[in-house]
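FORM 7B: Structural annotation worksheet

SECTION A. Query
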Amino acid sequence: MTKTNSNSGRHFFQFWPTALFILCLLLFYFCQTKMDLSYQRELVEGGQWWRLLSGQLVHNNSAHLFSNIVALILCRVLFLAVLSERAFVVSILLCSLITGGLIYFLLQHYDYYLGVSAALYGVLVAGSLHLIVGRHYWGGVLLLVVMAKLLRDYFYPAVLVSVSDRIGVPVAVEAHFIGVLAGVLLAVGQCIVILIRPATLPPK
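SECTION B. Predicted structure
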């Protein structure tokens, strides 16, 4: 094996956390065919709080799953400059958990929900804010594109009919807005941690 091939393999291997998360989505999809792991308000109120997270990780059908996997990979590519592998996967998990909690408290008419798309919107927003803070100002353009798409989906729901038919469930636009809120909360929290951390370090 040449040195170039070795370096390429090592470079590819660094993405194992994202690959592992995708594998988890696939496993959750197959588990969903045996046992419903979706967010269901009645069951959450009955004590099954884990559905706040699991509901974000399961999908209705293969089209639903693979469209979100493609979106996830696109997110990873977009934020290579500002998010490490660990930070990216942790961001997805935190956005998923925050989104589940916010859906429970803010979308009380949502009795049922599944899919990682809302959490991915959160990652898109959090990542865009990181780009802006890091002086990659095209992150502002990305943020505007995300918000424009959400507003189009909300005010012109007819454009989502074909998507709903393909994934087998209505597109949960309100949940996507909740995902955006989760992303903002995550980005603010991360900025606070960054500001506090230097103050906690011992003096040299």
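SECTION C. Observations
Residues 21 and 61 are 18 Å apart (CA to CA). The beta strands are 39-40, 112-113.

SECTION D. Sign-off
Analyst initials: ____
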